[in-house]
Amino acid sequence: MRPIYVSLILAFIVTAFSHNGHAHPSLLPQPTNISSTPRLLYFHPHHFEFCNDGKESTILKEAFERYTSRIMENSYPGEGFLTSNSNSATFHDHLSHHGFSKQDAIRSVSVFVVSSDQSLGLQTSETYTLRINAPTTIIHATDVYGALRAMESLAQLSFRVKIDKDDDCFLEEDNVDVNQLHTFKFVDKENYKRKRRPIDRLVLVNETSIWDTPRFRHRGLLIDTARHFLPVSIIKSQIDAMEMSKLNVLHWHIVDDQSFPYQSEQLPELSGAGAFSSDTIYSAEDIDEIVHYARARGVRVIPEFDMPGHAASWGKSHPELLTRCGASISGGGTGSGTIFSRNNFKKLYKATTDFWFEKVGNGAAIAVGPIDPTKESTFSLIWQLLREVSTRFPDVFIHLGGDEVNFDCWSENEEITAWMQEHQDLGNDVRALLPYFIKKVIGLAEAAGKEAMVWQEALDFSSRFSRSVNGDGCFGGGGDGKSSIPRGADLQLPASTVVHVWKWASYLTSVNNILNAMQQQQQKQQDLAGRHLTTHSRRLQLNSNSLSSDASLTNHSNGGKDDDYWLAELAKVTKTHRAVLSAPWYLNLAPAGDEHTWERYWNIEPLNFKASIEQKERVLGGQACVWGELVDETNALQKTWPLAAAVAERLWSDDSVRDIDAARERMEEFRCKLLRRGVPAAPIGPGYCL
Predict the structure, then answer these.
(1) Could you give the CA distance from residue 315 to residue 333 in angstroms, rounded to a whole number?
(2) Which is the most buried residue in 115, 530, 600, 661, by most CB within 10 A?
């Protein structure tokens, strides 16, 4: 068979198509506008580079190295995408008798960035245009992060094809350093002398034009490192996959009841006593590494320090922070001050989280609950922590929690009830202490230079226990239609606060949905589904006091898809505050009936609620959540991917992207691309990856 000198042969025409009907590999998320031609281009194997045609940027410099490797070494296999335009000939046979011209070789990608501002936040545009052509492909971006998105799109659209060894395919390279030839196979001595570099594959891409911009500014993923510690390597792999899917916010739920792995320099005892072990902590160096790694990929890191609930691990070093409840038990062992958990004790309360106890000596222990909001020492310690955290995490936001508070514990504490008697401006309902506490902590966060995010309960109870916004002198009550707040109380959250909507249904609907899901899963996953769905406390709203004042306690006949609840919550929240949605996107619950599938996540429409345009503009975006009760380093990536990609596409792509069959093909292909980049993504159905 005669040699093929690619640099000397006329272009050949190849009709590109795949088993799934695409003219080229698919792109996820689907861009705003994309057009491709059948013309195939190839990346020059030895003379291809990214060029920065703007100001110097370390972010771009690192990305150029990253994406050169991804395009040239890890491009998607193209065997399923290319055939000859002849029904009787294979692509390789066609290549043997024809070839590409010099005009088909992409030798460079020129990147033009308009803004020199490399800050990362809600103001970041991420808009880009990508024109794939030869010899130069051009990227125009508003900011460096738009350029990153463009490079990712280019990498996803590229695919490699093998060239049969019998074809003796060479590239003429007169200027190649002989020392570089050791990385290639040689056919004979003559080829070595002439410096011809044999190739066994080409990386191809269709001529394409893209204009792309995200629909929502906040597109996030929540990870939980308190229920199970996640090594830094796993977190970085999550960020790699986020970059691929164009997610831009890592919500790091770093501490909770179970452990306090954040290592504080000012308060080292918090992790010293609160972490699972001395090996399961995040040092200042670890956090810096993660934050830098994320920023280089266009991902913001927002830490969450959940309070006043979910704070038992704080009490392991500072038991004075926690509220002592009215209940006590025997069998606590010897000693005092130790915090431990009794899961089944929550049956005595309407609490939604595990019940925690403090040993008080003589074999006895007393139940402890949320952080005590009536002590000034509480806020002194929180201020020390927030002031330090604000320097560790550069993002303008910090998440302060505010969910699932055990109000019964507060009401049973004599010191707290006495304090409320002395502070009549709060009335006599301990639930008013939640917005009181959150508002004070938000003030501390603002003093440290941060804006606050909170779970929806903080605003729900703030609205209930604050004066009405119309100034008519009426005040919220305790849910029974009677006012319990005297004039003077002002517990409204600052307008700058972002409210995180996470409850997807009312209590009875939640229980019904979970029971239905358990029945569907019983045959194939009886043990896992039963244990998972009955103990996952974040989704079971067992405390009726934590429901919104207008929450419906009726069972909905909508097949278990109770979107009305969170849509109504969004409509309420956005009257006064910006919002982020997570309610329909709890990935750790998958698979569970038809409520937690990628199709379900993909089909969600965040703005499908009745409200003004101004209100809908207050929806910043959304987040997929992967809570850690049943997730650790062995399954975190599989639990997250490719499911999170369905959420990513919904938050990036235009609302008009609604073809579920086309989305399925993109999801299947995206999962294979994740595997090629080293992310062990789980399958979404039968099939295989090349």
Answers:
(1) 18
(2) 600
Q: What is the pTM assigned to this prediction?
A: 0.83
Residue with tokens 């969910």: 403
Listing from the earlier edge strand, what are the strands of the sheet with 4-5? Answer: 4-5, 169-172, 196-198
Closest among 181, 164, 226, 300 to 623, alpha carbons compared:
300
Closest CA to 212 of 128, 133, 297: 128
Helices 58-73/144-157 angle, 10° precision: 0
Helix or strand run (H / E) with residue 434: helix 433-447
pLDDT per residue as tens digits for the range 260-299: 999 999 999 999 999 999 999 999 999 999 999 999 999 9
At the fourth CATH level, which superfamily is domain 216-323+372-690?
Answer: Glycosidases (3.20.20.80)
Q: Which two tokens stand for residue 574?
A: 């956005």
Mean pLDDT score of the chain: 80
Superfamily of domain 4-212: Chitobiase/beta-hexosaminidase domain 2-like (3.30.379.10)
Neighbours of 380 (CB within 10 A): 10
Q: CA 123 from chain center: how many Å?
A: 19
Distance CA(467)–CA(432), nearest Å, equals 12
In 3D space, the residue among 46, 73, 48, 50 whose CA is nearest the CA of residue 172 turns out to be 46
Q: What are the structural domain ranges in the chain?
A: 4-212, 216-323+372-690, 324-371
